Amino acid sequence: MKDIVILTDDRLAEAQQVRDALIERGWRVETIPRTICLWDEAGLSAWAAPFSGEIAGVIHPAPTPILGAIEAVSEAQWRRAADEGPMAAWCVTKVFCDRMKANGGGSMIYLNSIHAEKPVGHGALFSMGCAAAQMLCKEVNQDYGEFGVRAFFIQKGITGSDPDARSPVSNLYYGVDLRYPARRLPEAGYLNALVAFLLTPGSAALAGSDLMADGGMVQYYTHRRQVEGRPYYEWPK
Question: Per-residue pLDDT for 31 more than 90?
Fold first, then answer.
């Protein structure tokens, strides 16, 4: 029975919540140790070998954001962004989708960010990495879909555990709670049921989808109203 879910990185709060929820639902979750470079295909493949026949799905969260104006980032930060972003996503996809293909299918879930479609000037390297993973998801659907591998890209909204990315070039991180229709940040675990569903064959109709799981944040345009006298955002002085 394929009952193992691979979590590639557990630093993201939502990834930790999803992991715990899946374990409660009876899944076996294996988290890749941080000593394994996700962009080292050979090392990743060796780590994955013992689980090859039992993998039901893979959850690959976006890396920790690299913040700062793009004109100020160093060459080392460019290299780190490339490794932790597109290269890691590509290697994870290659290693695990090949295994799921050989075993009749599974789910490849990119637990990512709205920065894929909503870049901000204070985290351009992160946004580029998110967009690259978004494109990769579409390629996975084309290359592995006929073998039963379902690929999904989740664009999660901004939550209280995210790094503070406020800057003078974007107002996205100001008054974040007022950007949600419910006028509050998402509660812990708000993605758990969605990810659990995407691991099941019933999610096949959504294969290849970009899922804007941001609680309506990006598409909410009535933000000019005030709530309890609070402005929509406070621009930096």
Answer: yes
pTM: 0.93
Calpha distance 218→212 (Å, rounded):
9
Q: How confident is the model at residue 223 (pLDDT cuts 50, 70, 90)?
A: low
**Contact at 8 Å (CB) between 96 and 52?**
no
Question: What is the residue extent of each domain of the chain?
Answer: 4-211
CATH level 2 (architecture), domain 4-211: 3-Layer(aba) Sandwich (3.40)
Residue 78, pLDDT > 90, answer yes
Q: Is the pLDDT of residue 154 over 80?
A: yes
User: Residue 209 forms beta bridges with which residues?
Assistant: 152
